[in-house]
Design goal:
By secondary structure, this protein is of the alpha+beta class. Helix content is about 30%, strand content about 25%. A hairpin with a 4-residue loop joins β3 and β4. The model has no long low-confidence stretch (mean pLDDT about 90).
Length: about 140
């Protein structure tokens, strides 16, 4: 495993095939997502990746944002073979830095069922008070 990794916010460096494979086949939240849906999500979001010394993508994430007040961090994925090298930390740090430098976003939200500890290191916490996260599934014909 290469020891040098590079964070990138350049969408042209995203390996769309690999990101789609990871999310639609290996994630717990996007099982079965179509390639067309993934491409549309990439095109409508800020995208981030980590590349190894050989230029191979080893991690991916995207942020849905208005660029002014709100950002939703989602689709965070580190290649199973590359885990244990701090890439999740590198990805989250890079995204936070990018959003602080490139926008006036006031808050970043996310949902996770497995990585609370990682995100807590960077100041993410459960929403306080009586606020509740609410979801409305959209029905399609």
């Amino acid at each position: 495993m290469p020891t040098t990794f590079t964070f990138s916010s350049d969408v042209s460096q995203i390996d769309r095939d690999l990101a789609h494979h990871w999310l639609s086949d290996q994630s717990y939240w996007a099982q079965g997502r179509t390639r067309a849906t993934q491409d549309a999500a990439i095109d409508a979001s800020r995208n981030y990746c980590i590349l190894d010394a050989d230029g191979r993508q080893v991690a991916y994430a995207r942020v849905v944002t208005d660029g002014v007040t709100f950002a939703w961090l989602c689709d965070v994925f580190v290649d199973e073979a590359a885990r244990g090298h701090g890439l999740g930390k590198m990805l989250v740090e890079g995204i936070i830095d990018d959003l602080q430098n490139a926008s006036t976003v006031k808050r970043i939200v996310l949902a996770t069922s497995t990585a609370d500890g990682l995100y807590a290191r960077y100041g993410f916490a459960e929403s306080p008070g009586p606020n509740r996260y609410m979801i409305k599934p959209m029905e399609r014909n």
